[in-house]
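Ops channel
N.P.: pipeline sanity check, posting one input/output pair.
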């Protein structure tokens, strides 16, 4: 299936124009991604915990129940947050320190989110398929993340 990531980013901007508050924006974005992207079992966000800035806490998502807290540097999400780099993992079972929140997940992509130049959380997407995500997905989901960063009221999250 060919996903139009430019259109997805435009839809995220439209969500933000009608309501810039970060919570409903992330909730609608996770629902949109879960609905539009094929072969997913989880799409959502982990955000920096204000009380412990070296820990991510579960944010809005679609899918099965998930891990509630992830330390910076742990698992795919914590690695993305700590290193401030996109993580594209074809097989999560080969990722050192992978945290199996859902045993059905086999591949994952995680994109750091920023406000005022600081990582404030991550967009996390999982699939039950091995090698589900590729460079096109990475570039497209970066567009979505950039749309969130440009339009969302994330300063509250710092």
């Amino acid at each position: 299936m060919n996903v139009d990531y430019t259109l997805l980013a435009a839809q995220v901007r439209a969500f933000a124009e009608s309501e810039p508050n970060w919570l409903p924006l992330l909730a609608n974005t996770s629902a949109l991604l879960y609905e539009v992207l094929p072969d997913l079992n989880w799409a959502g966000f982990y955000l920096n915990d204000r009380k412990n800035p070296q820990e991510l806490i579960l944010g809005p998502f679609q899918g099965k129940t998930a891990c509630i807290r992830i330390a910076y540097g742990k698992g795919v999400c914590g690695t993305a947050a700590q290193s401030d780099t996109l993580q594209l993992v074809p097989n999560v079972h080969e990722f050192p320190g992978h945290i199996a929140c859902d045993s059905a997940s086999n591949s994952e992509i995680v994109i750091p989110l920023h406000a005022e130049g600081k990582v404030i959380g991550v967009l996390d997407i999982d699939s039950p398929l091995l090698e589900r995500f590729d460079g096109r997905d990475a570039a497209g989901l970066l567009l979505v993340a950039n749309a969130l960063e440009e339009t969302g009221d994330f300063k509250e999250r710092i």
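N.P.: looks fine end to end. The chain has a mean pLDDT of 92.
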